[in-house]
Amino acid sequence: MAGSRTALGVDVGGTGIKGAVVDLDTGQLITDRHRIPTPSPSTPAAVGATIAEIAQSFGFTGPVGVDFPGVVLDGVVQTAANVDKSWIGTSLPHVVGDLLPGPSVYLNDADAAGLGEVVYGAGHGHMGTVLTVTFGTGIGTAIIHDGVLVPNAELGHIEIGGEDAEWRASALAREREDLSWEEWAGRASRYLQTLEALLWPELIILGGGISKKPHKWVPFLKTRTPLVVAELLNNAGIVGAAHAAWEAAAKG
Ligand code: BGC
C-alpha cells in the first residue's frame, strides 16, 4: 500500500526518457516505468513533447521532478554534452512546465541519481561526503555531504592526460573503442583515483547503466575509497527527481 508521499519522476537520458510515480516513504516505484526512446535530433521541442507524453500517461496530479543530462540552473539548461546543442540556454519550465500535471522542479541527471541512492539506496545512512559517479553515454557526478547536495558538479569533464575524462572513461568509450572490461576498468580506476585525490569522499557509489553488470568490472577497480554499486540501478534518476519534487512541494 503506497504512503501519502508520492511524486512523479522523469529521467531524461541520451538514449531513453523514462518516468514513474514513486512512493517517497519507501523509494519504490508504484507504477510501471514508462520509457520512450530519446528523439533524434534531441531538440527541446521533441524532447519536451516526450517528457509531457510520459508525465501525462499516469493520470497523476502531484509534484513532478524532471532530470536532464546537463547543468541546470534555475530550470535553465547550461550545457548539453550528449544532447542537441540547442538546449543550451533553454528553460525547461518554459518548454514543459505547462504540460506537466503538477508543480515541477528540474535538476541534473547525476544529481537526481545521487539523491536517489543516498536517500533510498546504496548510500542510505552515510554521512560525510558521498560521491556518486554514473558511467553511461557520459560520466555524471553528484557530491552529497551529510545528505545535502552540492548541485551541478561536472566532474565528468575534468581533464586527465590532456583529455576530457568522459571521452576516455565513459561506458560509451568502452564500446566505441571495443575495450576489454579490464582495460576499461583501468581507465575508470585512474578517473576515480583522480576524483578521490581531489575530494576525499568517504564513499563512492558506482551508477549508470553499466552498474547492472558490476561483476564484469568492479573487481578490477583500485581505489582508496570504499566503493559500492548503486542499488536503484536504472531507476535512481526517477526516484531522485521525484524526491526533489516532493521536497520542493513540501517547502511550498
Ligand atoms: C554532462 C553531465 C551529465 C552526465 C551524465 C555529462 O556529459 O555534462 O551534466 O550529468 O553527462 O549524463
Write out key terms for the chains shown.
single chain, 252 residues, alpha/beta, Nucleotidyltransferase, domain 5, 6-stranded mixed beta sheet, 5-stranded mixed beta sheet, 7 helices, 15 strands, 30% helix, globular, binds beta-D-glucopyranose
Give a brief description.
The protein is an alpha/beta fold and 252 residues long. The protein is built from 7 helices and 15 strands.
Tell me about this structure.
With 252 residues, the chain is α/β, with parallel strands linked by helices. The protein contains seven helices and 15 strands. The chain has helices at residues 44-56, 92-96, 109-120, 165-169, 171-176, 181-199, 236-251; strands at residues 6-12, 16-23, 28-29, 34-37, 64-68, 72-73, 76-77, 104-108, 129-135, 139-145, 148-150, 159-160, 163-164, 203-207, 227-229. Strands 1, 2, 3, 4, 5 and 8 form a six-stranded mixed beta sheet that branches. A hairpin with a 3-residue loop joins strand 9 and strand 10 (139-145). The mean pLDDT is 96. The structure holds beta-D-glucopyranose (BGC).
